[in-house]
Amino acid sequence: MPTRSRRRFDDDDFPPFTDHPYTAPDPEPDDAPDEPMWSSYPDATHGPAPLPDWVITSPGAIDTDLGVMKTGKEADVSLLRREFEGVTTLLAVKQYRDPQHRLFHRDAGYLEGRRMRRSRENRAMATRTEFGRDLISGQWAFAEFAVLSRLWQMGAAVPYPVQLSGTELMMEFIGDPGDDGGAATAAPRLAQLRPPVSEARALYRQLREVLLVLAETGYAHGDLSAYNVLVHHGRLVLIDLPQAMDLVGNPQGFGYLHRDCVNICSWFVARGVPADPDELCDELLRTVPHA
Prior knowledge:
Order of helices and strands: EEEEEHHHEEEEHEEEEHH
Number of helices: 6
Largest sheet: 7 strands, antiparallel
Number of domains: 2
Strand content: 15-25%
CATH architecture of the largest domain: 2-Layer Sandwich
Distance between the termini: 33 Å
Strand order of the largest sheet: 1-3-4-5-7-6-2
């Protein structure tokens, strides 16, 4: 995949977080058929420009659900095939769980600094009413879409966010599509690898680069570990960013940043890489705007 050049952001490049009008999607009937459907792209919020040439935008495209790839506490990730006139692309579909089936035990710290415009909504989120939990669920999906959009436009190694609809986020599939009818294979997580020291050093350099871009936008990952990093043919890709936080707006932001550095550096140190979490954290802080 070609390397994208970085560019500076203006606030007008992407709408502010609180402007997103979250609306819960209509529930599907229990007997909804599990079969190909027309593309949902035309009715969704679209990813940032410039649009990659592999993104299929036609309303005549067909979407086929290929099944769940990963089940988590907060969301499930499925594989989707989108086809139009002989062109095929694979997408990772992240569906956040509804309020009744999702764990919110970590929300309080991550949501500091994120405020809705109406006080009623803020109170509902703070007291975890059913309405408040709906708002929080929608916030996670939009937060990840917004952060991925910003990072991708700045040239960071993250999946391209194709579209957002309610609590469903579709993004670039990182992996191998499979040939001659074979099954697609998702890229392994960093935690699954046992690279030699030379490769581990190269991966650490890539990780430092993407974290610098993240800090340059004013964010910390918030939950960084070797399980939130993919490696595809030697290329490192950062994933799972719904809890990414404003380092200046969130009073706990710098603490989360240091924890990220400790977690990820521990993995690399165990593979023979001299990764100092305090040095990494200090370097990132020097990049944060208005820190």
